[in-house]
Structures are given as structure tokens and as C-alpha cells.
From TrEMBL:
It is a multi-pass membrane protein. It is found in: Cell membrane. InterPro entries: Cobalamin_biosynth_CobD/CbiB. GO terms for cellular component: plasma membrane. This is Cobalamin biosynthesis protein CobD. Keywords: Cell membrane, Cobalamin biosynthesis, Membrane, Transmembrane, Transmembrane helix. GO terms for biological process: cobalamin biosynthetic process. GO terms for molecular function: ABC-type vitamin B12 transporter activity; threonine-phosphate decarboxylase activity.
Amino acid sequence: MSVALLTVAGVALDALLGEPQRRHPLVAFGNMASNLERRLNAGGRGWRSHGVSAWFLAVVPLTLVALVLSWLPYIGWLVDVLALYCAVGLRSLGEHVLPVANALRQGDLEEARRRVGYLVSRETRELDEPAVARAATESVLENGSDAVFAALFWFVVAGAPGVVLYRLSNTLDAMWGYRNERFERFGWCAARIDDVLNYVPARLVALTYALLGKTRLALACWRKQGPLWDSPNAGPVMAAGAGALGVELGGPAVYHGELHERPRLGEGPMADADAIERGWGLVQRGVWLWLLVICLGAYINA
């Protein structure tokens, strides 16, 4: 079965079923990774070598299992589809960001703060309406890249083992990739591998956002503002996305009790509920564009 058909099937399954509500494989993986970290990084004393060992123990065996299962006759294609379905979080992303926009439209700031707290790691208790909208818009742009487009990219490149390798690596980065006393050394490997795996997808996503929005502004923001962000991949994605939407993102935010002076991204008015919804629409249109390109590529190479 062609990669294009398998990709469409995986995305369609996500659209129909959404995120598994029970026994999600990533939840089980997260629990296993937490136990592994407690053993190899007890008290935050693990070194980089411990982090490297933990990454290999967590990711490589499951990637090899996905590789072997994808080779099985008759059911290998089903393994591919299910792997992509479990890795792509398109419908789940919409289910998380749209309630924030709805709460803002209804003037329910407390509910908006509570909802956006599910999406971001910054403190949300004292955010005003523009700050909540800014956080949600940034989240939909960045998570669209990490949870949707990068998964599609690695599935097209390497099938089930590719998307499993990427999604598990990205999950470990989200769990261990912090620059604090506990994870500065132990999480270094997870963070660097995630940076490498996201390098090409992030720039394709930035280009996608630019093509589907205010193209000239998005490209200018990507070029000038992207390099200023502390993440080499989130910077291009969010700068291009902010420019494509014609809004201002970034700026100061409180993480774990510390104020971070982040650069401004984009250009235009402050984000609002409309910006959140337009950001979600940008991600959706981007997925349609990617599926079209994947299918056209398969047709040309047939």
C-alpha cells in the first residue's frame, strides 16, 4: 500500500476517532520513561551519559518493534496506519485550543486561564485576556509543528519506525528537556536529538504557514525574529506563524516562578480569540496542503 494512502488513512482515523481515551500508548510510554528517569537520575544527579543510556533504553527497542511489525505480511500496513494515528494529534489539538477561544469570547477569563493551562508550561493564574490568547496561539502554532507536521514528515520518510522514533523522542524532550538543575545534564541528549529530528520539519512548517497566510510578512518575521528565539526550531515556526496571522506573539512569560524576557514575534495587533481560531485554521489548511503534496508526489512517482 502506498505511503500516500497510508498517510491519508492515519490522518482520517485521527479525525474520526480523536486521541485514544483509554490506554494511550504515549501515556504508558510516559510512565515507563518516568520510572527510568527516577532510577538513572535519582536526585537530579544523573550525568549526560545516563541521559544517553536512558534515551536508548526508552526509544530504540520500541522503534525496532515497530520496524519488525511493519514488515509483517498482510498486517504491516495496519501497523503503519495505527502508528501514525497514535502519533498525530490534530483533532486533539483543536479540542484543546478552541475551548480557550470560546471562553474568551464569553468573557470567562478564569475558564480561559484554566483551559490554556492544559496547553502550556507557563504560569496562567494571573494572565490577562491578551496573554491567554497569546499563549494559546503560540501553542497551536508550535504544537501543530511538533505533534502534527513533524509526525507526518517522519512517517513519509520512514514509515512506522520513523514516526515511532520521532514521537517517542519528542515525548522525552517534553519530559526531560528542561534547562534546570534536575535535567540540565540528564535531559541534554533528549533535547539535542529532538532538535535534530525537528530541524527540517520545522522549516517546512514555517514555509507552510507563510504560504497560507500573509506570505511576505511571515517570511520577513521568520528571517529577522526566528533566530532570536531560544529554540532553534520553535523560533522559525512561531515567527512565521505570527507573521502569517498578522498578530504579535512572544514577550515576557513566567515559567516555574521565573520571569523570562522572550523576544516579540510577528507584527500587528495583540492576539485575541480570533487569532487562536485563525491559528487553528492555519494548521488545518497546512495539513490539507501536505496531504495534497504527498498524494501528488505518489502519483508522479507511480
